[in-house]
Amino acid sequence: MATTLAEFKTAEKSWWCPGCGDFGVLAAMQRALVEMDLNPEMVTIVAGIGCSGRIGNYINSYNFHTVHGRTLPTAMGVKLANRDLTVLAAGGDGDGLAIGMSHFMHMMRRNIDITYVLMDNHIYGLTKGQVSPASDPGFVTKSTPAGNIEHPVRPLELALAAGAGFVAQGFSSNLQQLAELIKQAVQHRGFSFVNAISPCVTFNKVNTYDFYKEGLTNVDEDPNYDATDRSRAFAKVVETESMITGLIYREERPSYEDLAAGFMKAAPVANQDLNLSPEKFEKLLAQFR
Ligand code: SF4
Fold first, then answer.
1. 201 lines ligand 1 (CB under 6 A)
2. Average pLDDT over residues 195-209
3. pTM score, two decimals?
4. Could you identify the atom of ligand 1 that is nearest to the CA of residue 22?
5. CA 173 distance to own-chain centroid
6. 155-162 vs 230-239: helix axis angle to the nearest 10?
7. Is 200 close to ligand 1, i.e. is its CB under 6 Å away?
8. What are the CA-CA distances from residue 143 to residues 97, 101, 123, 126, 155 (Å)?
9. Is 202 exposed, middle or buried (0-12, 13-18, 19+ CB in 10 A)?
């Protein structure tokens, strides 16, 4: 029997502010899991610190609420320990692009089969409105009263440059497209990255729903857009200053797990009898005496 939306919901009451974009990301994630007909017991959500880090509490699956910036190495450990699980990591731009940045870069080059949904609101919401690495120049916050003087990290540009095999961007208010992108990301073999624009209605009065509704264009509706061409994808992202949604880039290549399986077969250790008796142990030790 097919799974239902109710099976992916928990009884926990959300403490997100009314209207927060994270509600849309949550609904899209749940919808994607249902449409893929996944068993909740075979799904693990690894969530970071910040408002968005609560997302795992609202999805009925295994949930690992990890420490700040460590969603990706934790998700990697879960996936490599049990490769049958569907593993999604989720967290905010502060979590993923500041303290978690080096993990983000290395996960893209490693290409482990997990999906990372970055809930991007360009601000630190949980700590009540400080500038984040994704904030635009000039952005006035509690920590930048005269305006942000730093250049932002642009996650789509970064993902394309770092070698991610699946890069997409959705908007929390376009539930259907975001759910579809998350679904494709989970089905993609290897690391997949979905930047989910998720407005913070309480502390970010610049990057609002209207700001995105007026500015975003959808590459999924452009018949001339080629999502298999990395350099064109990069040009598009730069040209539009990342104000696009849709599947931006996809490349099929072996995942870390695929390559590791081949390596293990070829490695001498794979041909050894690993059932250790006292005699075998002594023989092994003798080699080092
Ligand atoms: Fe959402 Fe912002 Fe409220 Fe946090 S502070 S729950 S990000 S609206």
1. yes
2. 98
3. 0.91
4. 1
5. 18
6. 160
7. yes
8. 17, 21, 11, 14, 22
9. middle
